[in-house]
Amino acid sequence: MSGIDSLLYGIGLAGVAVNAASGVLEAGRKPFDMFGMVVVALAAALGGGTLRDLLLDRTVFWIADRSFLICAITAGMLTFGAARHWRLPPQLFLLPDAVGLALFTVSGTKIALALGHDWLIASVMGVVTGVVGGILRDVLCNEEPLIFTGTLYATPAWLGALLLAGLTEAGATSAVAALAGGSFVLITRLGALRWNWRLPTYSARR
Amino acid sequence: MSGIDSLLYGIGLAGVAVNAASGVLEAGRKPFDMFGMVVVALAAALGGGTLRDLLLDRTVFWIADRSFLICAITAGMLTFGAARHWRLPPQLFLLPDAVGLALFTVSGTKIALALGHDWLIASVMGVVTGVVGGILRDVLCNEEPLIFTGTLYATPAWLGALLLAGLTEAGATSAVAALAGGSFVLITRLGALRWNWRLPTYSARR
Amino acid sequence: MSGIDSLLYGIGLAGVAVNAASGVLEAGRKPFDMFGMVVVALAAALGGGTLRDLLLDRTVFWIADRSFLICAITAGMLTFGAARHWRLPPQLFLLPDAVGLALFTVSGTKIALALGHDWLIASVMGVVTGVVGGILRDVLCNEEPLIFTGTLYATPAWLGALLLAGLTEAGATSAVAALAGGSFVLITRLGALRWNWRLPTYSARR
Predict the structure, then answer these.
(1) Which chain B residues are within 8 Å of A147, Cβ to Cβ?
(2) C177: DSSP letter
(3) Does ipTM exceed 0.90?
(4) Of the candidates A62, A67, A65, the residue with the CA atom closest to the CA atom of residue A43
(5) Contact indicator for B148, C30 with CB cutoff of 8 Å
(6) Chain B neighbors of C40, CB-CB under 8 A
(7) Of the candidates A55, A120, A149, which has its C-beta nearest B60's C-beta?
(8) How far is B3 from chain C (nearest CA, A)?
(9) Tens digits of per-residue pLDDT, B51-98?
(10) Which residues are CB-contacts of C79 (< 8 A; sequence separation ≥ 6)?
(11) What are C169-203's pLDDT values in tens digits?
(12) Of C67, C193, A144, C192, nearest to B141 (Cα)?
């Protein structure tokens, strides 16, 4: 692997680990046992990429490379063990989670572009890879998906994916497009957390 | 495309748009933001056909033809904008939703028949195409699926799909079978709405 | 089919029927109608094997062999009919459900091994086949998944799948490995029911 690919692979594993940890922390508010925790962790860490691969008719990534599966199980169980001994504030994971969102979005978009899909499908696949895990996590916990209500989360992912796809179509090298798109996702997400940026809502119960 | 195919394609796009609108109206009872609305709209509009294509190992229809994806996103955002300014009663969508159910059922059944599946699998695929979107919409909104409790919805779809498959096996032309099956779904669904037809239930809390 | 294969096939059908019945009994606590019951029954009976087949890129088992679909629909409707006339205690199904869990785990693990996957992926597929149906059933009923909170359920499945995969790699015949793994699942699950074995949990609301 080239330098940029090794870096992306490493950040990908880190993203899986962080999402698995976020699954355990979320499920910790429920009376779930260790198995339930691990299932929620796996759904949060692997769900988005799995749906992307099923939709694109690729071999599911954690079946093609077991490292992601082992990483998700290990991170889930370590977080479970740690959370029984220390009080882990969910905020602890916001920074690495933003890194994971950026990486997942970049990898999902690049995979779809490499298969020959256009900017629209590719950017949707980036968003699917980035956010479906968090939706599955909340559905399994029987709660309304957090990312439907909180500070900007999927919007940075979608805009960053569009930027990546646009730069690629404009002739930028793969590394430049990935770095630009990923940085955009990361910075916008951190800005949303810092300044509480939100999308408009409406309530039908007026 | 022949005349009947163009017509079915146009009604298919209309069905996608109506289902996306119904997703936004349903999600409007929750404190979801615009992104959450669009995700629920996409799940409602594309979920049934996506599951059908995954089960039948076909290319997912909105990846093969982006028009359906663009149509669902556009309809979802327009409904979101409209619902912020005017009070849209959900009843407004019952008639076009019935048309969408009929069309989705016909297209799902015909696709499975064309792949060589028999009447049983084909009719199940018709029902999957017609109703899974509505189930996904309600699961994402953390509610019990409406179609499990209300007036007849899936039953007309299944009977219409069986009629379509039976006529095809009996030698009817594709257009006749599609029109007969689709009309049956539409009329029975409208009848169920008008006269409040329901299936039997039981309560285990006796 | 050889003797052992016929036996596994028969127990597989029985597992599908029992899971369909458990879906109806679970959904019976909700005001669902007959169609809702049947959908929950199908999700409970076929969901795990369907996800396994999608992940492994195989033809979905109930499309390849309609017997499983017919069996699930029939069992769901018979249970619905019976439950309207008699009070069926859910405990009635615990023994056949344990048999179904053992069989589903064995078949899922064996299918993945036969496709050339290693012990880790194969054992995960065994667990997916055994437990995803029950998770889907509870998500559709808008409840927290029971198997995340109760007596040991997935852990016996995973240990039995590991035993099966280990014995196969050690050179045991297919029948011996299947019987050893399946018996382990069954006996451990029954022991968990009898002596209330549970995994550790933690509550984040300390």
Answers:
(1) 35-36
(2) H
(3) no
(4) A62
(5) yes
(6) 148
(7) A55
(8) 32
(9) 999 999 999 999 999 999 999 999 998 988 888 777 777 677 777 778
(10) C20, C21, C24, C25, C41, C88
(11) 898 888 899 999 999 999 999 998 888 887 777 65
(12) A144
